[in-house]
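Support request from a user on the community tier.

User writes: "When I paste my structure tokens into the form, the page sometimes reloads and wipes my input. The last time it worked, I copied everything first. Here is what I submitted, just in case something in the input itself triggers the reload:"
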């Protein structure tokens, strides 16, 4: 009873177990990957979740029509709906998850907190009643003491949660959180608790059977979050020692036993700098980040859930559980980090997954529910995939993640690969110095994340890479025969250019003086670098050069090896620095001192658009004379949008807080746009007058559609 990557993930394990599966899908998902992944599929309604994936009657009708005996809810949708569990039991159908009492008790954040406290679990201090309105939210927040966390009682997945630092935040947080909660869960109840400053978000995965056995697994660290939504997860945590893990695990078991829990579940904790931990909530379902636990334990959590639902006993005991190695997961979302992580939609025009390298001690896993041609729509969560890497230790897992992200090709939809790739290079992240404030502290807004910031050496490296790619394409353009060569007497021969090159007495096939210019997000000024490139003669069988020497003023020469980009656009380069007194490497030698994977997004008349570390750069390559003349060319001016407020995302106008003719101030709320069930407040960027509001509440808006037009405030006469 789900869609996307989690439906595909469940179907994969079921197939391994010899169990046939039935997919349910909405009209918008008729061609979705999860529909193809199952043995049968049933349409359960139109695109809106309330009429399809949340429609209990239609889900049960699909089960009866196909003879399905059990339902796995995945996460989201009906996964934590106690009424759904009750209905299934009445119909004689099996829910693969916990019972109604456990789900109902833990699903209500207020009730779960009271129950946890009674069971002997550490809890965060706060107000356990329901907040009625903004005024009460402000009063309760003052009683507790700022900062506080305003939370939806039925919330989850980062929805319906706001941090309040003052009275204004508390009033606004109540209003926005209750609206998000109503839209996402059909329950707008709100409560308030103390916000633990600089906490780590650590969670304990448990698995329980119907024979009284409850086992806790290695902890997961999910501290890297945005809007309370996890972005990077890993297991185990480098911060938690064994004694703390066991103490947290034992409390998680106490809580599970208090509600007669069965199946997989997760107890989430906030941990302070002294390793004091507090109960946050219990998710009575399979977590999005469950793969990192699977990677370090070797367990299949979906398989265990199915077996527990069938009445089987857990096949292991607590003393057999430990973490081996380290696993890292990043969530790949259709969202634009350069525009405040606003959600994006579109069709995947190119989609190529990274792969594990055979023989290496690292593993790359991709849990995805899309393929080339899939549509990312406004109706559902914008997650494209989960990318997971495994290594013998944390550093190895991170290194594998860097390479996997560099090789992950997504075109047609804006995504957050540039951001998560940058996190993998962040010094604090590498040191394990992370809290739930990590993004806010390392990418403060404004301006927020501005793309990967090229270092001086990285800029030189990119210039050199672009230059050798330019040389290869120039050689390729002069080849008279097809790149694969020609055939004589039915046998393949090398191309003419390669044959001439191999027979040439000179190692250098050609050289060029070039000026390379790089422009990209976050760069105040373009980087311009003159350099010289020498192309070595091709090896026998090659049609163009694959070895080059690049010389730059004030820097060591680079010896570089690279073949043409793949069909998908991956350009793999090996290079090393040459000291002045160092002999040149043997011709054709594989130079692996440094490896870099660059994505070639496009080729234009004077260069390329290249992606490095997830961030795109426009690279222009000119001869020195053309570069000199280019200084006299007019500079194209960006379009002026300062007099309009445009929708930063596709969505629906939820509310408008101003009127035409009204004077507005910097920071004042102008409107709220709802996108993918999240409330996004748009604020005034400068003192202005509202000239025109061409949209209305409830109206759908496209990205960059004008919502408000401004007029400049009149300047008062001098002397007044």
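"...and here is what came back when it finally went through:"
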């Amino acid at each position: 009873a789900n869609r996307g990557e989690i439906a595909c993930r469940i179907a994969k394990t079921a197939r391994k177990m010899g169990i046939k599966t039935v997919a349910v899908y909405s009209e918008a998902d008729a061609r979705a990957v999860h529909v193809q992944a199952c043995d049968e599929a049933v349409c359960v309604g139109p695109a809106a979740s309330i009429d399809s994936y949340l429609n209990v009657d239609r889900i049960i009708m699909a089960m009866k029509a196909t003879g399905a005996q059990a339902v796995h809810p995945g996460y989201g949708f009906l996964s934590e709906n106690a009424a759904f569990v009750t209905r299934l039991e009445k119909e004689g159908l099996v829910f693969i998850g916990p019972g109604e009492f456990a789900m109902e008790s833990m699903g209500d954040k207020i009730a779960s907190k009271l129950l946890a406290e009674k069971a002997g679990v550490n809890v965060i201090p706060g107000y356990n009643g329901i907040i009625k309105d903004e005024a009460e939210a402000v009063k309760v927040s003052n009683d507790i003491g700022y900062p506080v966390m305003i939370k939806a009682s039925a919330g989850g997945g980062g929805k319906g949660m706001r941090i309040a630092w003052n009275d204004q935040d508390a009033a606004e947080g109540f209003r926005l959180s209750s609206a998000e909660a109503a839209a996402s869960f059909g329950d707008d109840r709100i409560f308030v608790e103390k916000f633990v400053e600089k906490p780590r978000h650590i969670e304990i995965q448990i698995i329980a059977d119907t024979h009284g056995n409850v086992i806790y697994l290695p902890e997961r660290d999910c501290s890297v979050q945005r809007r309370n939504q996890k972005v990077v997860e890993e297991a185990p945590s480098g911060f938690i020692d064994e004694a703390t893990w066991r103490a947290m695990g034992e409390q998680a078991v106490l809580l599970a036993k208090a509600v007669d829990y069965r199946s997989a579940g997760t107890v989430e904790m906030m941990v302070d700098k002294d390793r004091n931990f507090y109960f946050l909530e219990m998710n009575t379902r399979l977590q999005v980040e469950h793969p990192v636990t699977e990677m370090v334990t070797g367990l299949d959590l979906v398989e265990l859930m199915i077996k527990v639902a069938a009445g089987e006993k857990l096949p292991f005991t607590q003393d057999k559980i430990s973490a081996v190695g380290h696993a890292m997961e990043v969530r790949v979302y259709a969202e634009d980090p350069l525009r405040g992580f606003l959600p994006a939609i579109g069709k995947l025009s190119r989609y190529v997954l990274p792969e594990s390298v055979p023989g290496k001690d690292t593993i790359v896993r991709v849990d995805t529910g899309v393929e080339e041609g899939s549509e990312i729509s406004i109706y559902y969560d914008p997650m494209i995939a989960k990318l997971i890497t495994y290594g013998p230790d944390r550093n190895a897992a991170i290194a594998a993640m860097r390479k996997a992200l560099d090789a992950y090709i997504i075109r047609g939809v804006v995504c957050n690969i540039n951001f998560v790739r940058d996190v993998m290079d962040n010094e604090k992240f590498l040191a394990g110095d992370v809290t739930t404030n990590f993004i806010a502290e390392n990418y403060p807004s404004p301006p927020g994340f501005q793309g990967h910031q090229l270092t001086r050496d990285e800029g030189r490296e990119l210039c050199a890479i672009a230059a050798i790619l330019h040389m290869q394409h120039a050689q390729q353009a002069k080849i008279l025969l097809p790149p694969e060569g020609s055939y004589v007497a039915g046998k393949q021969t090398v191309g003419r250019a390669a044959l001439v090159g191999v027979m040439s007495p000179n190692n250098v096939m050609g050289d060029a003086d070039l000026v390379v210019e790089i422009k990209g997000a976050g760069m105040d000024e373009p980087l311009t670098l003159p350099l010289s490139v020498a192309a070595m003669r091709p090896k026998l069988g090659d049609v163009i050069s694959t070895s080059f020497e690049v010389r730059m003023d004030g820097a060591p020469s680079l010896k570089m090896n690279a073949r043409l980009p793949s069909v998908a656009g991956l350009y793999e380069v090996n290079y090393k620095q040459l000291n002045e007194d160092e002999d040149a490497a043997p011709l054709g030698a594989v130079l692996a001192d440094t490896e870099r994977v660059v994505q070639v997004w496009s080729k234009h008349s004077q260069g390329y658009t290249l992606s490095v570390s997830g961030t795109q750069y426009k690279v222009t390559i000119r001869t020195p004379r053309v570069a000199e003349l280019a200084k006299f060319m007019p500079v194209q001016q960006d379009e002026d949008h300062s007099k309009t407020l445009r929708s930063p995302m596709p969505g629906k106008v939820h509310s408008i807080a101003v009127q035409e003719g009204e004077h507005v101030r910097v920071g004042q709320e102008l409107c709220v746009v709802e996108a993918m069930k999240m409330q996004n407040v748009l604020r005034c960027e400068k003192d202005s007058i509202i000239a025109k509001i061409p949209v209305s509440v409830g109206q759908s808006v496209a990205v960059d559609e004008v919502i408000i037009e401004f007029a400049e405030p009149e300047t008062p006469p001098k002397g007044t």
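Agent notes: The reload is a front-end session timeout and is unrelated to the input. DSSP finds 18 helices and 41 strands in the chain. Residues 487-503, 581-592 have pLDDT under 50 and may be disordered. Escalated to web team.
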